[in-house]
Amino acid sequence: MKDSNYTLIQILGSAAVTILLGGIAYGSLASDQKSLSKKVDKDQQEIQLIRGDVNNLKTDVAVIKVKLDSVDDRGKRIEDAVNKILMRTPVAASER
Fold first, then answer.
1. Which pLDDT value is given to residue 44?
2. What is the CA radius of gyration of the chain?
3. Of 25, 45, 22, nearest to 33 (Cα)?
4. Run of H or E including 50
5. How large is the average pLDDT for residues 61-68?
6. How many angstroms separate the CA atoms of 89 and 85, rounded?
7. What is the DSSP string of 9-41?
8. Sign (positive/negative) of CA torsion 39, 44, 50, 52?
9. Helix, coil or strand: residue 47
10. Any idea what DSSP says for residue 1?
11. Distance (Å, whole) CA 14 – CA 55
12. Residue-level pLDDT at 2
């Protein structure tokens, strides 16, 4: 009977150790998962900020393109006006 009690105690002890180690491992995994979840949330926030910055840059580029087109149009109008003046001036026409 003593041997069977001793064997039973060994089995229960092994089971207790296994459960304890399993609980520690589970707690460690849960902690890691929580840490990773926080990191993912932080990364997603950074991605949203970067997307916002990219959209702002796209808007800035579009505004710059419009301004450049406007400057180009003004430059063409000035060039056309200068050419008209030069065509009307007799000296300028003779120099051509």
1. 93
2. 40
3. 25
4. helix 2-88
5. 91
6. 6
7. HHHHHHHHHHHHHHHHHHHHHHHHHHHHHHHHH
8. negative
9. helix
10. -
11. 60
12. 65
